[in-house]
Design a protein that fits this description.
Layout (H helix, E strand, L loop, with lengths): L2 H26 L8 E2 L1 H8 L3 H13 L3 E4 L3 E4 L4 H18 L2 H9 L2 H20 L2 H16 L5 H22 L13 H9 L3 H22 L1
Antiparallel strand pairs: 1-3, 2-3
Length: 225
C-alpha cells in the first residue's frame, strides 16, 4: 500500500475516533437527548468534515448501544428505560465482582507503582468532583477511574465491556440527575475506599462498597425518575 494511502487511512481513522468521542461526550452531557434525530450530513456540516468518517463514527456509537439507525431518516440517540438501568447495574456488578476474584489479586500484586498511582489519582479526582456535585467533571473522571481499575485483570474484553455498560448507565442517569439544582452530598464518592480495598485484597470490603454504590445509584435515580 502506498505511503500516501496509509497516511490517509490513519487520518480518517483518527478523525473517526475524534468524532465518535465528541458525540459520545455530547450524549453523556445530555446535550443530545434521548430520541434526538440527526443525519450524517448534519453532523458532517457541524464538524466541517466529509461524510465518510462521520458515518463510521455513528456506526461505532450504534455498536456501543448509544445510537439507533433510523431507516431513511438517519440516526437517533437511544432511549434507555428504568428497567434497562437496573439491568445495566446488575451487569456491571457481575463484571466488577469478576475483577475482584483471584486473578485480579495476582494482577494487583503485579501493578507497577506508576499504574497504581494513576488509579489512585483518578479515584481522588472522581471523589472530589462527586463531593462537589460537579456532574460534568465527575463523568469523565469516573469513567477513567473504572476503566483503569477494570484494566488490572489484563483482559481488554472485560475492561471494554465494563466501560460500555458504565457509559450507558451514565447516559440514562444524567438527564435525571440534572433535575436536582444542587447535587452536593447526593453523589457516591467511595472511589478511594474502593481502591484501598482492592489494593489490600480485601474482597469482602470491596464487594460491600460496590453493593453500597449500586444501592445508592438505584435509589437516587429511582427517586428522580
Amino acid at each position: 500500500m502506498p505511503a500516501g494511502t496509509v497516511s490517509g487511512v490513519i487520518r480518517r481513522s483518527t478523525l473517526r475516533q475524534q468524532i465518535a468521542d465528541a458525540l459520545r461526550d455530547e450524549v453523556l452531557a445530555g446535550r443530545l437527548p434521548s430520541g434526538h434525530q440527526f443525519t450524517v450530513k448534519e453532523i458532517a456540516e457541524q464538524y466541517g468534515v466529509s461524510a465518510t468518517p462521520v458515518r463510521e463514527a455513528l456506526l461505532d456509537l450504534c455498536a456501543q448501544g448509544l445510537l439507533d439507525v433510523e431507516q431513511h431518516r438517519g440516526f437517533s440517540v437511544h432511549a434507555f428505560t428504568a428497567e434497562d438501568f437496573r439491568a445495566m447495574v446488575d451487569a456491571r456488578t457481575l463484571i466488577i465482582e469478576g475483577i475482584f476474584r483471584s486473578s485480579a489479586e495476582r494482577a494487583v500484586r503485579a501493578l507497577s507503582d506508576e499504574a497504581l498511582a494513576s488509579i489512585r489519582r483518578r479515584a481522588e479526582e472522581a471523589e472530589r468532583a462527586a463531593r462537589a456535585g460537579d456532574l460534568d467533571v465527575l463523568i469523565g473522571y469516573d469513567l477513567r477511574f473504572w476503566r483503569e481499575l477494570g484494566s488490572i485483570v489484563g483482559n481488554p474484553y472485560i475492561s471494554d465491556f465494563l466501560d460500555r455498560v458504565r457509559v450507558q448507565t451514565w447516559m440514562f442517569a444524567v438527564p435525571l440527575l440534572r433535575r436536582r439544582a444542587d447535587l452536593r452530598g447526593h453523589l457516591w464518592h467511595g472511589h478511594r475506599e474502593l481502591v484501598a480495598a482492592v489494593v489490600g485484597r480485601d474482597l469482602a470490603e470491596a464487594q460491600r462498597l460496590v453493593r453500597e454504590y449500586n444501592e445508592h445509584s438505584l435509589t437516587l435515580v429511582g427517586d428522580l425518575a
